[in-house]
Amino acid sequence: MTGESGEATISVLHVDDQTHVRELLSTFLQRLDRDVTVHSESRPKAALQLIETHPIDCVVSDYEMPVMDGIEFLEAVRGDYPNLPFILFTGAGGEEVAAEAINAGVTDYLQKEGSDSYRLLANQIRNVVSHRRSEDRAKIARTRLIKLYEQTDGFYTLDGDWTITYWNQQIAERTGLSTDDVIGRDFWTVFPEAVGTRVHDNYRTAMETREQVEFEVYYEPYDYWVELRVYPVEGGLFVHSRDITEKREKSQELQYRNELLESFASTVSHDLRNPLNVAEGNLQLAQETGDFEHLEAVAKAHNRMRNLIDELLQVARGEDLEEATVSLSAIAARAWETVSSDGADLAVENDIDFKAYQGQVRRLFENLFWNAIDHGDATRIQVGALESGFYVEDNGEGIPPKYRERVFESGFSTDEESPGYGLSIVTGIAEVHDWEIRVTDGEDGGARFEVTEIERPDE
To answer: What residues bear 4-aspartylphosphate in this entry (predicted)?
Structure first.
């Protein structure tokens, strides 16, 4: 049961059949390094028993010994303790013995050549034990890391030639490739689609610089986002692979909600501004003329703002989510009541019933009406049914073809004084209903908006 005797102390087992050599080496080592404790044995078999019962950090052995020589002793030690530092310290033998010792797995080979050789031996003992302990700590840390990641995440290891040397169960389940499919194979051969990607570049950076690399990447063959942490280790790379698809989706959902909130705020501002302008204008007229009939328009505008606030709160709370059957003529008439027509007329050519969110579709008509009057200088607005929807057409200035692809963008406007949110609200409402909307020329040169793909009550 060999093991470390403690980070500060070093336990050395010295095996030599000559008593005076054992005593001399023990004296020299403990004088040169106070942290060294020496256990001496004359027979290799007794030394093997001592290794089993004492924590030994390093074995120092002579070569020429009766019954079992140093090479045979080394082979016996290596059979049970393949990583225990073993130094052959002998005055006999030459290159042939050294070669044999190296083949048997000796840690180091030193010749007994005066007192300086003992100083060299003491230094080498310290070096090999320190190296062994560093390796042990790295193995322990790696084992702990493996146990930690085995619970939830995927990981694998690659050697310096990009050969896959380990492949855990989680990464096997994620990729559909078992250990038998990948162990011993070149990583870039198993995953040729990764060559030339960020994975390829970052792995090579970690291998060449020996510095940790972390990055996120979408891996198209398996349709998921993965967070990769690449740790350089002795002889290759340790790769921790974590599926972050759900995390990315939540992040994208949050971004979408933030954009929706920003759009909602713009919508509220735009929808409330129109009746507010009506109220302010009529209030000013009442003050200037003393004609209280203008106050009726103010009250009407205030009532419209109150209704808008209630409707917008319903949308914000998710309460305006039940479809109802609406009449084209009725919903258009209700929307027209809230618009300051400035002498413009509304005509409904024919009527149809369709399914919609009432509050939202009324806002769609309101914004189309306001757009025709405020930006198009229309004097006549016509609403009518289509085979699969309805249209709103005016006789105003129309929308130039070069702007028709952009008029539905949030913030776009050809009027410097307009915030440009009206038509983006229209397209947003259409999208909620899964409708299609397009703009074209009206018969009198104005703008014509066609909304299609509506759902009829009998469908």
So the answer is: 62
Backbone angles phi, psi at 326, to 5 degrees: -120, 155
Q: For residue 33, with 0-12 CB atoms within 10 Å meaning exposed, 13-18 middle and 19 or more buried, which class applies?
A: middle
Give the up-direction half-sphere exposure of residue 173: CA atoms within 13 A in the CB hemisphere: 9
pLDDT higher than 80, residue 75: yes
Q: Where are the beta strands (DSSP E) in 146-212?
A: 154-159, 164-167
| Report field, pTM of the whole predicted structure over 0.85 | no
Confidence of residue 264 (pLDDT cuts 50, 70, 90): low
Quote the crossing angle between the two packed helices 115-150 and 19-32, to the nearest 10°: 70
Q: Evaluate whether 346 touches 383 at the Cβ level (below 8 Å).
A: yes
Query: Which of 147, 167, 155 minimizes the C-alpha distance to 243?
Result: 155
User: Of the candidates 48, 29, 49, which has an alpha carbon nearest to the alpha carbon of residue 38?
Assistant: 29
What average pLDDT does the structure give for the chain?
A: 84
Domains and CATH numbers, the chain: 10-136 (3.40.50.2300), 152-243 (3.30.450.20), 246-320 (1.10.287.130), 322-459 (3.30.565.10)
pLDDT (tens digit per residue) in 216-259: 988 787 787 889 999 998 889 999 888 888 777 676 666 656 65
φ, ψ of residue 154 in degrees (nearest 5): -95, 150
Burial class (CB in 10 A: 0-12, 13-18, 19+), 334: middle
Question: For the purposes of burial, counting CB atoms within 10 Å of the CB of 46, is it exposed (0-12), middle (13-18) or buried (19 or more)?
Answer: exposed
**In terms of DSSP H, where are the helices of 318-421?**
328-337, 358-370
Position 235 scores a pLDDT of 86
**Which helix (H) or strand (E) element contains residue 269?**
helix 245-289
Nearest to 437 by CA among 424, 418, 446: 424
What pLDDT, on a 0 to 100 scale, did the predictor assign at position 212?
Answer: 94
Q: Any idea what the Cα angle at residue 5 is, between residues 12 and 148, rounded to 5°?
A: 130
Residue 394 is predicted with a pLDDT of 93
> Is 73 in contact with 65 (CB distance < 8 Å)?
yes
Angle at alpha carbon of residue 442, lines to 441 and 444, rounded to 5°:
120
Helix ranges restricted to H, 318-392: 328-337, 358-370
